[in-house]
Write a structure and sequence with these properties.
Layout (H helix, E strand, L loop, with lengths): L15 H52 L28 E2 L2 H4 L23 E4 L2 H4 L14 E4 L16 E12 L11 H5 L6 E3 L10 E6 H10 L5
């Protein structure tokens, strides 16, 4: 006679407390995983944006060497082409976009505008402001080394005006020819933050400083000495 062992099976499952502990542990593990991934993704968007700004700056300098002037900013309806075509008196000197099609830059969105690294929407198009000083000389014909471009870049928007940085605020550029910028992750075009607001109010003063939780704009600019130096080296100016 064969005696078989009797096996006993328990129907007891996880208690609510045990399930809660498991869920808490899973939550902590996921938070630890997604936190670094999110930070890495943001850093990648930032780097992509900076690369686009740097590439665009070089494209503008190259355009100036070839054409003896800088292109006018594109309008919201010109499909990435300078407005007006051929330069002269720019229709959107302070509130326009980088004319990516005119510059031959790629990639662009479906309408011909260069984008920052944050999104594929119109709010993330690269902005471009161009000085109107010296009777539009910079968008018409740069023939002198004694021009006086007047775009300004300030380290803060505190007490900023349409034409000058606030009293006591460090000035990063007093004679910029052009300013290129992205409105950043928040793509804010109308904000309460005074620093970001200064970049969206369509005048000749701009703000740039380290990124913070309330300021995520990214800027670069072309100074007059840099532009003049490139033109002199290319034999376009004496």
């Amino acid at each position: 006679m064969i005696v078989r062992p009797v096996l006993y099976y328990s129907n007891k499952g996880f208690s609510l407390v045990e399930m809660a502990v498991v869920l808490v542990i899973l939550g902590l593990l996921l938070a630890g995983l997604f936190g670094p991934l999110s930070a890495q993704l943001e850093q990648r968007h930032y780097a992509q944006t900076q690369n686009m700004l740097d590439t665009s700056k070089e494209a503008l300098l190259g355009y100036a060497i070839i054409n003896g002037r800088l292109p006018c900013p594109a309008s919201a309806l010109s499909n990435g082409i300078e407005d007006p075509v051929g330069g002269g008196i720019c229709n959107h000197a302070y509130d326009g976009f980088l004319p990516a099609v005119t510059l031959g830059l790629a990639p662009t969105d479906a309408d011909g505008y260069a984008l920052d690294g944050w999104s594929n929407s119109a709010a993330n198009r690269i902005r471009y402001a161009l000085t109107t000083a010296n009777n539009q000389a910079f968008s018409t014909n740069i023939t002198s080394l004694t021009l006086t471009p007047n775009l300004r870049v300030c380290a803060s928007g505190a007490s900023i005006t349409a034409s000058a940085c606030g009293s006591g605020v460090p000035v990063l550029a007093t004679a910029a020819v052009a300013v290129l910028f992205s409105l950043g992750k928040n793509a804010a075009t109308a904000v309460s933050n005074v620093d970001e607001a200064a970049n969206a109010d369509n005048n000749l003063t701009f703000v740039n400083h380290e990124l913070t939780t309330s300021f995520d704009d990214q800027l670069t600019w072309i100074s007059y000495p840099v532009l003049a130096g490139r033109l002199v080296n290319a034999g376009k100016l004496p």
